[in-house]
Every structure is written in structure tokens, then in C-alpha cells.
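ok so for the tutorial part 2 we go from a plain amino acid sequence to predicted C-alpha cells. step 1 is just haveing the sequence, like this:
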Amino acid sequence: MTGIWGIVNATPDSFSDGGRYFDADDAIAHGRLLRAQGAGVLDIGGESTRPGAERVDPAEERRRILPVIAQLAADGAAVSVDTLNASTAVAAIGAGARIVNDVSGGLADPDMFAAVADSGADIVLGHWRGPSADMYAQAQYTRIGREVAAELRERMESAAAAGIAPARVIVDPGIGFAKTVAQNWELLRELDDVVALGPRVLVGTSRKRFLTGALGEEASLERRDAATAVTSVLAARAGAWAVRVHDVAGTRDALAVRAAWDG
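step 2 — the prediction. this is what the C-alpha cells look like for a chain of 263 residues:
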């Protein structure tokens, strides 16, 4: 069955839940809830990557997330750290994280691959074409599935050259990153190009703005969560290994219905 990653944003400015879990105790409690609801991995982030977001000093990022990672890992949870910074990745692994989720695919920090290679942790390579503050300037594609897959293949080759074994790599098509609303839908329809690369595929559509292309601009978080559950099921059918979501319970139920339907 497709795995579920639960999102824990220890940030004041994430696009959908910024500030709700900024306090470490609140973030820990939320992570425990998501795990109880069925999250197999808890993805902990201390820097928003929403469109237009400004970068956070790595020291501040670590201050936000390390106590959360340490406690949830001590609970026995599988923890991923959502970071662009090699120094934060190293510290998070030391605190108990097993996976580094780098939405830039190692492009934001040239030290990332070497840091992860030495650690033994797995790494998520996201498709990325530049910082959040200016990502849409790069949203130009001819055949998006093929182009995203080709760029992810380059990141895989760079990771392998740095000493990261292919078995430790997960790829993420980067829904919402340097892609317009229409391009995100097109990429999901062409997800088989990414799946064909070979590594495990993580898909994150949760509450993202492109969902308004189907729901309308005024869609509430509850409606976006329902749409996320649908896109997560469709991604699972297309070969996704795991989905990254805010609403773990709703996604768990949707995937269970899909499993029952398929027999």
C-alpha cells in the first residue's frame, strides 16, 4: 500500500498552517497525532518553501526543528527533515532523522550530497528550478513529464557520483515548484515518466494552490484536503511509492478505499 508522509511545519509562515505548530511542544503533539492517524514518516520542516518565501538562517531553522525531531525520533517515529541546508541535514540526522527531503534536489547547497553520502541517510531529490522567491520565472516546458524526469535523472547521477547509492534515493516531481496551475495537472497526468526512472517516487499535492484549478480560487482548506486525498489516490495508481500530506486521516481512508476497490 502507498505510504503516507505527515507534514509537520515548525514555521510561522507556511502557506496553509503557518504558526500553528511553531512552538516545539505543539509540533511534537501534532507529529504524534499524525503518526497515530497512520503516517509512516513524519516530515519536519523549519523553513517555508511556499512561493515568494524568504530564506531562513540555518541556525534559526535548526533551533525550530531539532527538538521536534529528537523527541519524535525518540518516540520511535521514522523522521524526515525537510531542508535545503547541508548543515541542518547533518544536525537533523544526528538528532534522529532517517531521511533528508531536499526539495531542490541538492541544487540549493553544494555540500548537501557529500553530507548525506557520509551519513547513510536516504534522500529525497525534488524537482526544482530556483528559489521560492522567483520560481515561476522558470516555469517553461515543452513536454513537462519528460523534462522533469530528465532533470531528476541528472540529480540522481550527481547524487551517485557523490557516493549516494541508488537504493537510498527517492524522487519527487516537485508539484508546485516552478510550475503553473496547468503545468502541475499536466505533470500529474505524465507521472509515469517520473516513475519510469526507477527510484521510489514521493508525490506532494497537499493543499497546494494548483488544486484551485479544479476547485476555484476560494476553496477552503477542508476542500483542498478532500482534493488532496483524490490526487493522492490517483498518484498511487500511477505508481507513487508515498504521498506527502497535511491530512493524514483523510488520505489514509482514501487509500484504504482504493485498496478495497482494487481488491
